[in-house]
Design brief:
Rossmann fold, 10-stranded mixed sheet, 14 strands, globular
């Protein structure tokens, strides 16, 4: 059975990610694969977790979590302790075990939370070939985890790419889709592209049979506008593309995607952008 991979370092945010993943697994029937990545310098793999403030191992931490929650989902909960770079190990595990989804906390342990955001959470999202849900440690998990998903639509070609996976995700929960048309420019051809993308998005949602509404907003900052709208509508998730830029040395998330992951108090579903080859050949 396909699984949900959850990055765990026993910080508050990663435990929140685990609790959120439990809610997803209970509705979808997926197994949970928990993974802790130990860096080379973490020789003893000791974590600041345990009864009476005593440290315990990652293995004991996982055993405790599984014992407490294994009867709350229809599938299995297993764990792995790996060594290496956090983002590489988590994304590779998801890739080679054919996972359905990755769930990560937006902060990590050791106190350098903002540093962790920029160097692990966003790296996992940028490198993963699977959808990734990122969640903040202070997010209040609801009994029904996903009832309303915000689908931001802009003028880019890539904005449509997130729709099929978002709809597949939404069908598990019979979630409503809020198609949000984002007009960040008054240039006519850009406005027309937003309108055309919106029409295509709505057609795909209608075909899926899911409930939807379409609302529009004129904005300067599409990240801020999307988050404000999601909060106003009491949404449970925002679906975005990673807007990746490829180079020979790294994979970098686009500004919009990175801002959304870092700033949104609502879980973000990040879907990898596919490379689009222009119709016009360079030989023509």
């Amino acid at each position: 059975m396909s699984s949900i991979v959850v990055g765990i370092d026993f910080s508050r945010s990663s435990i929140k990610a685990f609790e959120y993943a439990l809610g997803l697994a209970s509705k979808t029937g997926h197994d949970l694969k928990l993974v802790y990545v130990s860096k080379a310098r973490d020789i003893d793999k000791i974590l600041p977790e345990g009864s009476k403030g005593e440290p315990t191992s990652a293995e004991k931490g996982f055993q405790k979590l599984i014992k407490k929650h294994e009867d709350t989902i229809p599938g299995k909960i297993t764990f792995k302790i790996l060594n290496g770079k956090i983002y590489e190990e988590i994304t590779n595990l998801a890739k080679y075990t054919e996972a359905w989804l990755i769930v990560v906390g937006a902060h990590g342990m050791s106190g350098f939370e903002e540093f962790w955001v920029g160097n692990n959470a966003t790296k996992i999202i940028a490198h993963a070939n699977k959808p990734v849900v990122s969640i903040k440690k202070n997010y209040k998990i609801k009994p029904a985890p996903v009832e309303k998903i915000i689908l931001p639509i802009d003028s880019t070609i890539e904005t449509i790419q997130k729709i099929p996976l978002t709809l597949k995700f939404a069908k598990y929960f019979k979630a409503q889709i809020n198609v949000l048309s984002l007009f960040s420019s008054k240039v006519k051809n850009i406005e027309e592209r937003v309108e055309n993308n919106t029409k295509e998005a709505i057609a795909l949602v209608v075909k899926s049979g899911l409930r939807y509404i379409n609302e529009k907003t004129v904005c300067d900052n599409i990240t801020k506008a999307t988050i404000e709208y999601a909060e106003k509508r009491n949404a449970d998730m925002i679906a975005i593309m990673t807007e990746q830029e490829f180079s020979t040395q790294s994979v970098i998330m686009g500004t919009y995607a990175q801002q959304m992951v870092n700033q949104s108090p609502i879980p973000v579903l990040s879907i990898r952008t596919k490379v689009i080859i222009p119709e016009t050949s360079i030989l023509e």
